[in-house]
Backbone:
């Protein structure tokens, strides 16, 4: 990818994850969040650069030690309050005592004037072998005072961090500058009509399947015809599907594609809907019925269409737009 392409992708909503971490668990959480909230960058306070200020969302991550936010994080917030006050901020902490972690985060919110959209403490880790002498000593005194054993703890949950990332993503998508659906709807319809092939993704647990398949858009629905195959093994047990329709890649400023989330329904060959659609395609249903194999029909009901279109930017809109049904 060339240099200009790298710049253009940052016309999408950008996120910075600013964190500190002594033994790696807050860092691990920060990197998970960066992957899901991308375009994003995770960096420590010392790695922060002026140019990173150009963001739509700031996520601040801190470990909790001795019931305190990491001092570098506090200092950063104090020294940068002039531009931070206008940013949407998410705060998270890693701690062993989560209610205490939440209380420590809340105290920070009370002390600082920040526009925090979400704040949450997650379970952290304790690996006694990794602790430096000072931390080991502090912990020994603390555990002794609390009557708790000195032992390794692992309350870190990747699943929880991933859920949190998805929640933040949804919340920020809702507040994004959205095109009116009267413009977006016809654009999406036109795009679907101009294309005829999609990638249909179906899944059930470890069984995942991506199927290139012809589709037809008709009256807000997608219809697929198939002689059968593994996708049905998934659809029969889990009818939730994801579908991608996209232009071939040319350059970063000519991107156009959509990811559809919806439900798949198998249409019975005896149904009027089955016959109507075959007619629409110019097929004779009676002739199709004499084929040696059944032609299966899948109807896709769309719930969400996520669109990426470089041209939206020229219209003063964000390149990523979402249509909900
Ligand atoms: C010396 C020491 C003090 C700690 N103090 C607290 C505390 O006050 N409250 C808490 O919930 N967790 C406390 N913890 C647990 C840490 O928050 C937890 O290990 C966290 O995952 C560390 O994050 P990191 O790996 O990013 O440094 C303490 C751990 C150590 C070693």
Residues:
């Amino acid at each position: 990818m060339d240099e200009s392409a790298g710049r253009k992708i940052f016309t999408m909503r950008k996120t910075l994850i600013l964190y500190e971490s002594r033994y790696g668990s807050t860092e691990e959480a920060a990197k998970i969040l960066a992957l899901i909230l991308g375009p994003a960058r995770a960096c420590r306070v010392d790695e922060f650069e002026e140019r990173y200020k150009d963001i739509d969302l700031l996520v601040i991550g801190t470990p909790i030690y001795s019931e305190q936010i990491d001092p570098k994080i506090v200092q950063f917030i104090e020294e940068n309050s002039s531009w931070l006050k206008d940013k949407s901020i998410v705060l998270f902490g890693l701690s062993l005592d989560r209610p205490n972690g939440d209380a420590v985060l809340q105290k920070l919110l009370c002390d600082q004037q920040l526009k925090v959209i979400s704040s949450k403490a997650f379970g952290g880790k304790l690996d006694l072998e990794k602790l430096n002498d000072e931390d080991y000593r502090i912990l020994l005194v603390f555990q002794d005072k609390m009557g708790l054993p000195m032992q390794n703890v692992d309350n870190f949950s990747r699943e929880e961090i991933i859920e949190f990332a998805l929640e933040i993503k949804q919340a920020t998508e809702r507040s994004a500058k959205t095109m009116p659906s009267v413009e977006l709807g016809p654009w999406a319809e036109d795009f679907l009509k101009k294309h005829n092939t999609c990638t249909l993704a179906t899944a059930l647990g470890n069984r995942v399947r991506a199927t290139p398949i012809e589709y037809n858009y008709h009256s807000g629905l997608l219809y697929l015809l198939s002689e059968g195959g593994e996708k049905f093994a998934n659809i029969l047990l889990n009818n939730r599907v994801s579908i991608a329709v996209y232009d071939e890649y040319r350059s970063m400023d000519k991107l156009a594609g959509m990811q559809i989330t919806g439900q798949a329904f198998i249409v019975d060959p005896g149904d009027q809907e089955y016959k109507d659609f075959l007619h629409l395609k110019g097929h004779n249903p009676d002739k199709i019925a004499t084929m040696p194999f059944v032609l299966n029909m899948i109807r896709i009901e769309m719930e969400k269409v996520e669109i990426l279109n470089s041209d939206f930017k020229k219209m003063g809109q964000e390149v990523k737009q979402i249509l909900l049904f």
User: Anything to note?
Assistant: The radius of gyration is 25 Å. Residues 19 and 213 are 44 Å apart (CA to CA). The chain is about 35% helix and 30% strand.
